[in-house]
Amino acid sequence: MNDYSDKTQRATRHGVRWRVVLVTTDGRQAFGRTGDLSASGASVYLDVYLQMQTDALLHLEVPARPDVIERQIVQLPCRVVYTVHDNAMGQFRTGIQFMQLDEPARDILQRAFKAYFHRARPVVAEDA
Predict the structure, then answer these.
(1) 3-state secondary structure of 38
(2) What percentage of the chain exceeds 70 in pLDDT?
(3) Which of 50, 54, 87, 109 is the most buried (most CB within 10 A)?
(4) Helix (H) or strand (E) holding 86
(5) What domains sit in the chain, N to C, each tagged with a CATH number?
(6) 109, exposed or middle or buried, with CB in 10 Å at 0-12, 13-18, 19+?
(7) d(Cα 86, Cα 83) in Å, to the nearest integer?
(8) How confident is the model at residue 1 (pLDDT cuts 50, 70, 90)?
(9) Which of 4-18, 20-34, 101-115 is least confident?
């Protein structure tokens, strides 16, 4: 197994439809929503095809939950690990792996997981 497979099997995936903008290192933007989200990556539905190994910055909107968490945008460095066209959604389903998340990004993800998924395990550095 490769490093990506090992991480994805350990991380719990949460089915959420949160808004995203993925900005590649060459400045291209792709808009969409998450299909699922974990501490180590996400599956996102985008309006464009992105090649594997594309490095990018994922802007993830964590929606507000009254009295629990305020709306936040978190920026997550990532890499595209697969892209397939999903006929049912009419978009490209793209798997992304988070790369070297800094402490503020991990904290925001942890708070989001705790607010929305009460049994979420902590986001730790080796997950990111």
Answers:
(1) coil
(2) 84
(3) 109
(4) strand 72-86
(5) 3-116 (2.40.10.220)
(6) buried
(7) 9
(8) very low
(9) 4-18
Token pair belonging to 45 = 């539905």
pLDDT class for 22, splitting at 50, 70, 90?
A: very high
Measure Cα distances from 43 to 28, 66, 70, 81, 103 in Å: 19, 26, 23, 10, 22
- What is the model's pLDDT at position 8? 44
Task: Decide if 68 contacts 11 (C-beta within 8 A).
Answer: no
Token reading at 77: 């460095």
Token code pair at residue 61: 């909107």
What is the C-alpha to C-alpha distance for residues 91 and 99, in angstroms, rounded to an integer? 24
